């Protein structure tokens, strides 16, 4: 059995995950409830994948690295090796993740960014979509999904309200 890759992410009602300048203040201003399902998702994973731009944003906007207890891979073209918390990977993210899915372990959380998500969408590498919709219409920004993705059939697992936000949980239908 292969490991599942999950997307756990928040989006505005009009489908943006950030403003053009990576600003997420609108997300922090959203009236949620508790941790909006984060703890439950986080306990189901043991591995994290993210791009360098997302990694830099996380470091810049948190007091300490938020995932110290998980194996974390950061995909980059500019850095080698490891630091205290992550392993930097210069390999193709799709090929690397396909190998990772075959290894022993729990679920893999694809944190971001948009480029990695787009590559995963094109290859149908996401097994679960947990998308929290916030009560914002941003009008422009970085879209959750880019164009020309394959058609992917999903099965609704759950919907949950967290204050003013709604979480949609889908699994990819298997044939």
What does this molecule look like?
This protein is α/β, with parallel strands linked by helices. The two termini are 15 Å apart. The mean pLDDT is 92. The chain has helices at 25-28, 38-43, 52-61, 93-102, 114-122, and strands at 5-12, 16-18, 45-51, 71-75, 87-89, 107-112, 128-134, 142-143, 154-162, 165-172. It has 5 helices and 10 strands, in the order E-E-H-H-E-H-E-E-H-E-H-E-E-E-E. The strands form 2 sheets. The chain has an 8-stranded mixed beta sheet. Strands 2-8 form a two-stranded antiparallel sheet. GO terms for molecular function: 5-amino-6-(5-phosphoribosylamino)uracil reductase activity. Residues 4-167 form the Bacterial bifunctional deaminase-reductase C-terminal domain. This is Deaminase-reductase domain-containing protein.
By DSSP, the count of extended strands is: 10
User: Which strands sit side by side, in order, in the main sheet?
Assistant: 5-4-3-6-1-7-10-9
The amount of beta strand, in percent, is 25-35%
How far apart the termini lie comes to 15 Å
Report the principal-axis shape. globular
Say which CATH homologous superfamily is assigned: Dihydrofolate Reductase, subunit A
Q: Provide the gyration radius in Å.
A: 16 Å
Helicity range = 10-25%
CATH class category label: Alpha Beta
Count up the helices.
Answer: 5
